């Protein structure tokens, strides 16, 4: 059900998003974001994109959080690397840091593979 104020776009055309200003039985009147283009369009030629906008915002938010997580893990990896190379800590302590460093490296590699798969 299309209503006044909905954000819509044309099916199989451009990515321009229009706002519905009038709803009739078979047609809707839409206007572009600058207010310069008012058109009457058949209802079956448009898609409501409110959900699309929400999904896009959510995707952007998740990408930012993913990047932040990668940054934090990279910093931890650098810290573990320094601790693993610290010879003053003794062999057992140094071994623990090396294991932690390798485990974190595997996590980072898996995350990089997931990111590459997502980009393809």
UniProtKB/TrEMBL annotation:
Give the organism the record lists: Macrococcus caseolyticus (strain JCSC5402)
In its UniProt entry, what is this protein called?
Uncharacterized protein
Classify the source by domain of life. Answer: Bacteria
């Amino acid at each position: 059900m299309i209503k006044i104020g909905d954000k819509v776009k044309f099916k199989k055309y451009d990515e321009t998003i229009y706002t519905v200003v009038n709803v009739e039985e078979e047609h809707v009147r839409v206007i572009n974001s600058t207010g310069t283009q008012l058109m009457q369009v058949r209802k079956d030629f448009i898609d409501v994109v409110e959900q699309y906008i929400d999904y896009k915002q959510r995707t952007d938010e998740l990408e930012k959080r993913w990047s932040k997580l990668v940054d934090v893990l990279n910093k931890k990896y650098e810290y573990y690397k320094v601790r693993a190379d610290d010879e003053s800590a003794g062999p057992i302590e140094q071994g623990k840091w090396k294991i932690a460093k390798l485990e974190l490296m595997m996590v980072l590699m898996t995350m990089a593979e997931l990111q590459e798969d997502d980009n393809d």
